[in-house]
Amino acid sequence: MLTNQKAASDPPWSASESDGFTLRSLEAAELARPTVESRLPQVICAKGDMDFPSFLKLVEKNKKQIQQSVTRNGGVLFRGFPIARPQQFQDTLQTLGLDLSPEYPLGTAPRTKVTNYVFTAREGANNFILGPHNEMSYLSMRPKWISFVCMQAPEVYGETPIFNCQTTFEDMDPEAKDFLSTEKIKYYRYMTKERTTFPLYSGAPWPQVFETEDKKEVDKVCKKYDVAYSWRPGDVLELETIAPAVVEHPETKAKCVNMNVCHWYQRVGNLKDFSDRGNNLANLYYLALAFVRQTLGTSSLRTRLANGKPIPLWVMRSLCDSLWRHSVMYRWRKGDILLIDNVLTMHGRLNVVPPREILASFGDMYHCP
Ligand SMILES: [Fe+2]
Q1: pLDDT confidence of 280, banded at 50, 70, 90?
Q2: How many domains does one find in the chain?
Q3: Taking the model in full, what pTM does it have?
Q4: N or C terminus of the chain with fewer C-beta within 10 Å?
């Protein structure tokens, strides 16, 4: 049913006794749920105590292998290293030679900048389960990678699940694979001018997304990113973009699903899959509101086919079932850094019980054909 991910040409990476770290898979005790994905992410685990400068030397020395591991396995998780401040997270990514984005261009999630290149991860709506998505998959210009750091680990829940986009695609029904390979997805975004407390509308207002209240500036940015837009009564801004649902990985050439799975059907699965978390009412509430708002066209983000027709439910069912079969739900630990390939790996966010602090950074923006 599944094929192995196409390996890069270099031999597998190994760590020696003197390297100060071990390489392994996630262990059962580190997972919130069992997974079939044994290689996602590769865990780079500290061996004993280490100060931050020594950690950066380790990263510098192994940066080529770390980058190859991200491409080959879908992601790496640094665990047990002394990461205590956002700046150290930024320094780690820059030592890896990554090109960090200072902007979150046309992003949907409410985020706040913490350093020049580090943002808060999705804020608020703690009971809301954020569905699987490749970051900014509704834009042709998107980051090649995204990274998260755990500044404060939640005592329960608050996982950032990750999903193998290649094995997900391979494991879907053949008809659904064919359908998604040939159709494109249209993303509709609806943004108010003011932050609203109206239920479910949790997207950022357009003055925050565009960092201006000047509509002419908004026009310029939309043209720059090739985004169709229209102004509606009440200072509402609507955007439309079209993107493929399946892309070829630029390096491994593997076919990967690439989407923001924000369809209301995704929330049907949440009712079934997360009923043990005691948030059934919240899941039911979000499902009902998602259905109503997607029908009315007032969701902050919704998807249809490029021709404007709904994505068939049998396709969504095959996609969602396969995604969760190929998901990895690990428990955060303070100081963890997760670095994932934004083509090979989707991410999401499960329900949160505060306190929890996760920060994000992304970059190496590229044009997805
Ligand atoms: Fe995200």
Answers
A1: confident
A2: 1
A3: 0.93
A4: N
